[in-house]
Design brief:
The protein is an alpha/beta fold. Helix content is 33%, strand content 21%. It has 2 domains: 113 residues, Urease, subunit C, domain 1 (Roll), CATH 2.30.40; 305 residues, Metal-dependent hydrolases (TIM Barrel, Alpha-Beta Barrel), CATH 3.20.20.140. Strands 1, 2, 3, 4, 5, 14, 15, 16 and 17 form a 9-stranded mixed beta sheet that branches. It has a 4-stranded parallel beta sheet with strand order 6-7-8-9. Strands 10-11-12-13 form a 4-stranded parallel beta sheet. Strand 15 and strand 16 form a beta hairpin. Helix 2 packs parallel to helix 3. The C terminus is likely disordered.
Length: 448
Amino acid sequence: MILLDSCRVVVTMDDAGTELENGSLLIENGVITWVGRGRPPAGERPDVVDGRGLVALPGLINTHHHLYQTLTRVHAQEGGLFDWLRELYPIWSRIDAEWERSAAEVGLAELALSGCSTTTDHHYVFPAGITGLLEAEIEVAAGLGLRFHPCRGSMDLGQSRGGLPPDSVVEDVDRILSATDDAIQRFHDPAPGSMLRIAVGPCSPFSVSEPLMRESVALARRRKVRLHTHIAETLDEEEFCRQTFDRRPLELLEDLDFLGPDVWLAHCVHLAPADISRMASTRTAVAWCPTSNMRLGSGFAPARELIEAGVAVGLAVDGSASNDSGNLLAETRQALLTTRARKGPAAMTARQALRVATRGGAACLGRDDIGSLEVGKRADIALFAVDDLAHRGAESDPVAALVFCNSGPVKHLFVEGKPVVRDGHLVTLKHRPPPLRGRVGVGGVQIQ
């Protein structure tokens, strides 16, 4: 039993937006059992964590990532999505389990230190003859203690068949479906409070054939797991879809039955008003990746319009090779700023941005047991210091200060009631990634 005592503010993110100054939370067996002021009801004597000067938030939820990309930051610095991919595919074609483990250790640790308690990963590169990739990142996430929603991704449309990726990184459809079904049966846990759930994640319209998209939909719905893909990220993609399928990207997904309450889509930058209506009516969710979309010059997702239409929108850092960081709290600030740049200074508040990063993320992943600090919810709690130099002068609104100011690493992070970060330091990472020396990366891959 743990008592988070006398926090500067407890930001519950409940439906009413309740915030408790000098609030406390009680954790028992991984669940929040009491939220209030003063002391909890009499019972067993808890371990006490001093919350003075700290803002308590629900653990942040990252809805789209590519952990394997963490070891290839700052490549293709002036390239758009297609050029960026063409430069990096040859490097990624040589990843192995050692690479994946090191990349996951770096990427997941970085997320945890930013206050992230739950993350997805969309892994779709499976070079021939290489095994253990999904298993490596699942093992790292379990060791760190993060709640994990990896997607068993896929690509079957190589360059020889009109796709973008080289043939060396695509797989046969039957192998993809078999490996995906195996991952679901081995790892997926649908129970409340689950620490590990698998999703089905064909990569994109320019790397996946129509038959694979249809079979992926059928598999996911047969196994009752969620579906994920990239869509409407760039104008190049839209032109590809028009020329190849005579459809715009969202129209293509609708034809493939790849929309619905069990689907969340990454990016959704280039949407027509009809697309937004289509997503709202089908209850399809969106992973919003503002930094990645700016870094690659893709544009600005209409997140404000999606939210106003009733679409569930979560926040995502995306892969570290198109973001060069994995700080989800910093991404929350980007969400606020890009929305204001597009729509005006009142278009998004700090609390609305934080809600996207918490409740919105939970909705993307189909979870009602995380995303808020309420009795009965899982004890995923991030505590941030607001009494330090970065927040001096922001005492009038410490909650907004987390978004407007330059917040440092999370002070404490609990996931399922267990400490993952304590006093700004990871307490769970058992394996340290080897340093990159010179131009040689993990597994001997040349990173130039």
